[in-house]
User: What shape does this take?
Amino acid sequence: MVFCRGCAKEIHQSALSCPGCGAPQAVTAPAGVAASAQPVTSGNAFIEVMKKYAVFKGRARRKEYWMFFLISILISFCIGFVEGLLGAPQVISNLFSLAIVLPSIAVGVRRMHDGDHSGWWLLVPIANLVFLIQDGTQGPNRFGPSPKGLV
Assistant: This one.
């Protein structure tokens, strides 16, 4: 048995699509061979997270989460710096913060899933940081296949 890439429910390994949600499933690699990870089309973690702005299912690698976090902080700093220089009200920085709330929560939940933890752990202050820093589980877990593509 394997886990659906869309809804993370357990399905038969030969299924081409999930009977529950209809999500297409990847063809599994032979035993002992690493499966290819989902390709990053843009090469930019911020863009990839923004494309999946409301996807709470699946898993996210540490690199995806922390690069999104770093780029978000840098963009916020730059917007705040420019608004401070111009003496403008903080309208743009507030809009940017509002725009990345949902993607930030979504990538955080997917990051929790990578460690085989529920997304609700984001609400626990110190534990969530520990889980965000730790490496994810090897191979598939109840939330889907490994984003690293390791079998």
Observations:
- The radius of gyration is 18 Å.
- Strands lie at 2-3, 10-11.
- The helical segments are 45-51, 62-86, 91-99, 101-114, 125-133.
- Residues 57 and 149 are 17 Å apart (CA to CA).
